[in-house]
Amino acid sequence: MPQTDEIARVAALFKLMSDPTRTRLLYALLEAGELYVSDLAATTGTSESTVSQALRMLRASGIVTGRRDGRKIWYRLSDEHVRELLNVTLEHTHHHPGDEDPA
């Protein structure tokens, strides 16, 4: 059984990913590899200010990292674990849609 602090970190990660806007941003980064704010906004149909606010949270949690190139910051998923988590979660939703009766 994981330690209490590990459980809290896992719960915080799922809470962070529970927001549809942040999750759309993560899947956009998963598909594209690396994008900057205006590309993320266009790809997800979200305002740049909303994207920036979401990226601050995702960066602070270590899910997303940024690379500065002049005035632009290019964002990407922080590591392979995040990619795996997104892929496995999406695969799980395809196999276990939430609207079916579990019995």
Per DSSP E runs of 2 or more residues, the count of β-strands stands at 2
Tell me the strand percentage band: 5-15%
Q: Tell me about the largest β-sheet.
A: 2 strands, antiparallel
Average pLDDT reading: 91
* Global geometry: globular
CATH C-level name: Mainly Alpha
Low-confidence stretches: none
Characterise the protein shown here.
With 103 residues, this protein is mainly alpha-helical. The relative contact order is 0.13. It is globular. The chain has a two-stranded antiparallel ribbon with strand order 1-2. The longest helix has 16 residues, at 80-95. It has one domain: Winged helix-like DNA-binding domain superfamily/Winged helix DNA-binding domain (Arc Repressor Mutant, subunit A), CATH 1.10.10. The protein has helices at residues 4-17, 20-32, 37-44, 48-60, 80-95, and strands at 64-69, 72-77.
Overview features:
single chain; about 100 residues; mainly alpha; Arc Repressor Mutant, subunit A; two-stranded antiparallel sheet; about 10% strand
In short:
With 103 residues, this protein is mainly alpha-helical.
Helix-strand layout with pairing:
Elements: H1 4-17, H2 20-32, H3 37-44, H4 48-60, E1 64-69, E2 72-77, H5 80-95
Antiparallel strand pairs: 1-2
Keywords: DNA-binding, Transcription, Transcription regulation
InterPro entries: ArsR-like_HTH, HTH_ArsR_DNA-bd_dom, Metal_resp_trans_reg, WH-like_DNA-bd_sf, WH_DNA-bd_sf
Protein name: Metalloregulator ArsR/SmtB family transcription factor
